Amino acid sequence: MSIFSPEAYAKSVVASVQEYSLLAGRAVGDLFSKPRYIADTFTQMDSIGVGSLPIVVLTGFFTGCVLALQAAVSLKEFGAVNMTGRLVALSMVKELGPVLTGLMVSGRNASGMASELGSMKVSEQIDAMRALGTDPIRKLVAPRIVATVFMLFFLTIISDACGTGGGALIAVTLLHLNGPAFFHTAYMSLVYGDVIEGLTKPLFSGFIIASIGCYYGLTTTGGTRGVGRATTQAVVVSSVLIILCDFLVTQFMIGIFGR
Amino acid sequence: MAAALTVPASIVDDLPEGTPIVAFDHVSIGFEAHEVLTDISFTVARGETRIILGPAGCGKSTVMKLANGLLDPDAGEIAIFGRKLSTMSEREIFAMRAHVGMVFQESALFDSLDVEDNVAYRLHEDKVPEDQIHDRVVEALRFVELEKAIDKFPSELSGGMRRRVSIARAIITKPDLILYDSPTGGLDPITSTTIIELVVKQRDVSNTTSLLITHRLQDAFTLATHHWNTTTNQMEKIPNGDLDPNTKFLVLNEGHIVFDGTTRELTHSEDPWLKAYLE
User: Fold this and answer.
1) CB spacing of A132 vs B65 below 8 angstroms
2) Residues A259, A193: contact at Cβ < 8 Å?
C-alpha cells in the first residue's frame, strides 16, 4: 500500500483547478466565435429547463408552504402574524428560491451531464468527436453552460412565484390570514436590490452546475465505476460551490444595496 | 457537381514531391512516470499502407492518437501532411482532422445517434445540404455492405457491423489518411476477413494512405499478399506470390521500434525476437 503523499495530493488539487479553469475559460471563449451549436443549445434548454420544471415547481411550492407555517408560529408571539407574507417573499426571492432551485437542478443536471459525458469519454466517443474534427468543448460544454445559465434564471423566477403562492395558500387556508394583505406586505417588502440579488445568484449557480458537471464528465477515467464516481463528485462539488457562491454574492450585494 | 464542392479538397496534391504523409521524429511519450513510447521515428509515404504490429500494451494505439493530434508527445516532432503538429493551433489541428479518417478499436460510434447520423456526422458538421447527405451516407454504407442497417442504432448492431459503420464514417469525406486502430480486434475470423477486405478495397480503389494496427498476423499478411480486383469486385491473392509494394510494416515492442521495412524484409529478418514473435 502506497503512503499518502500530501505533496502529490496538493499537486493534484492544483492541477484539477487549473484544468477546470481552462475548460470553463475555453467554453466561455467559444461562445464568441463560430461555429456555434445553436440546435444543441436549444436541445439542452429543453432537457435542463423544461425537464427540471416539475421538481422546481414542487420544491418552490412546498418550501413556501413550510416557510408560511414556520414564520406564523414565531411571528404570532410578537403579534406580527400579518408580516408572514413579507417574510415568505423576502426569504424566497433573496435566498431560498435561488439556492434550492440551484441545488435541485444541480442534483438533476450536473449528475446527468457528468454521467452522459463520462460514458462518452470511457467509450472513446469524445476522442471520436475530436478525430472527426469537432471540438467537444464547443459542441458539448458551451451549449450546456448557456442553456443552464439561461434556464436557471427563469426556473428561479418560477420557483419564487410558486413559493410565494404556496405561502399564500397556507396563510389563507390554514392560518386564516387575509390573502390580499399577504400579497400586499410581500410586494411592499421587496425592493429593487432584493430582486437583483435573487436573480444574480442563478447566473452563477447555472455556470457552476454546467461547468462542474461537464468537467467531471470529460475527466472521467476507470470505466463504468469511474462514471459513477464522476457523477457523485459532480453533484457534491457543484452543490457545495453553489452554497459558497451564494454566500459570496449575498455579501457582495449587501455591500452594494446595504440589505 | 455540387457534392464535390462539399468534400474537403485533398491537401496531399499540393504537397511537394516526396513529402511524407506521416512523419514521427524522435517521439517519446509517457503516462504517470511510465514511458510508453521511446524515441520513435518513422515515416509513411503517400499511398502507403503501414501495418503496425506488436504485443499488447507496446504503445500501438498511442501512435495512432499521436498521429491524429489526440495526444501531445513529451518529446520529438510529429508532422502530418508536411506540417508539424506542434506549430499548429488547436483550430488548425481540428481543420487538419477533416482530412484524416479514424477507425477506433471499439468503434466509438455515438450511441445516441442512428447509423445514418453517425456516418453523416462529419457532413452535418460541414453543413452539407441534407439532400446530398443521405445519398453519400448510402454510398458509404454500400461500400461496407451495410445499407440495410441505416436506421438502426449502434446498440442493435453486432461488433463486426459496428466496426463497418465506423469504417463508413471514416471514409465518407474521402480522407487523405486513414488510421485503423485494431479494426479486427475482438472479432471472429470470418468477420475479421470481411473487415480486412474492406481495408484492401479502400486501399486499392481510393489509394488512400493508411496506418493500421492489428494483433492478427494473418490479417497483416492478407493485406500484403492480396489486392482488390475491381472487375470481379473481390479481394484476390496477388499472382506469383508477389507482394503489395505499398504495404510496409512497423513492429513495436516495449515502446521501441524493432522493425521498420517491407513485407519481404520482415519475413527474412534474422532478429531472434522478431522471429519468435512472427511464429
Assistant:
1) no
2) yes
Query: Contact B122/A132, CB-based, under 8 Å?
Result: yes
Mark residue B45 as left, alpha or beta (left: phi above 0; alpha: psi -120 to 50; beta: remaining). beta
Nearest CA in chain B to A120: B110
Where in chain B are the domains?
A: 109-174
Per-residue b/e over A5-42, b at no fewer than 16 CB within 10 Å?
A: eeeeeeeeeeeeeeebeebbeebeebeeeeebbeebbe
> By residue range, what is the domain housing residue A144?
35-257
> How far from B24 is each of B77, B117, B263, CA to CA, in Å?
6, 34, 21
Residue A30: closest C-alpha in chain B: B91
Interface residue B256 vs chain A (CB under 8 A) = no
Q: Summarize pLDDT for B191-235 with one digit per residue, the tens.
A: 888 889 888 988 888 888 999 998 888 888 899 999 988 888 889
Judged by CB atoms closer than 8 Å, whether chains meet at A133 and B122 is answered as: yes
pTM of the model: 0.88
Domain count, chain A: 1
Burial of B240 (0-12, 13-18, 19+ CB in 10 A): exposed
Report if residue A171 sits inside a domain: yes
Q: Does A127 touch chain B (CB under 8 A)?
A: yes
Assess B6–A contact: CB distance below 8 Å, yes or no.
Answer: no
Chains A, B: CB contacts under 8 A, how many? Answer: 51
Q: For residue B212, what are the CA distances in angstroms to A177, B101, B118, B251?
A: 78, 12, 22, 12
**Does A11 fall in a domain?**
no
- What is the C-alpha separation between B97 and A130, in angstroms, rounded? 8
Q: Quote helix, strand, coil % in chain B, to nearest 5.
A: 40, 25, 35
* Domain-embedded: residue A16: no
Spatial contact of B135 and B147, defined as CB atoms under 8 Å apart: no
Answer whether residue A10 is part of any domain: no
Confidence of residue B3 (pLDDT cuts 50, 70, 90): very low
Q: List the single residue in A with minimal CA-CA distance to B93.
A: A133
